[in-house]
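User: My collaborator sent over this chain with a note saying "see what the structure looks like." That's all I know about it. Can you take a look?
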Amino acid sequence: PVATAATSSQAVVFNTSMNRAKYQIRYKAQELRAAGFGPGRIAGVSMNLVEAAAGTLLSNFKISIKQIQPDYTLDIFNPETGMETVFSETSYVVPSTGWTYFEFDPGYNFTWDGKSDILISTCYQDKSGSGTTKVETYSSSQSVLKYESATAMVDACLTNFDATSPYLNYKPNL
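Assistant: Without extra context I'll predict from the sequence alone. Here is the result:
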């Protein structure tokens, strides 16, 4: 894990209380290196579900990734584009609690240079089911942009981020 102390749980990535959601999450190179990550191929990511609405179906669930420069600023009016979709499921079923591994789709080879920050985006279109899903998180000021909607009939993966409260001050522990 990136963080081993001072973790909490928040409804992010799989916010099953929302019908649609999108997040862009920044992981700084220095925090990844401090956690023991080194340059090279990344074949997937893991997240710890500490509360799960197991069985909830998320339509068109996607994870995208990109290296970004350390001086890049997350901006709701100019979100990062050109992200590569590395995990995509038309009908993703939220699993039970515990660490969940998302193996990148076959043929995708993401190689981290060890110097750049990594930006991970997740989104889903609709959900069926109820309950709350929370992942293990740690405090990190303005490192996550979000869009969440309980009602809007839009493609969350293509919509803009929330202008009224776009930032979260915590991010998933990988």
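A starting point for your reply to your collaborator: The helical segments are 29-34.
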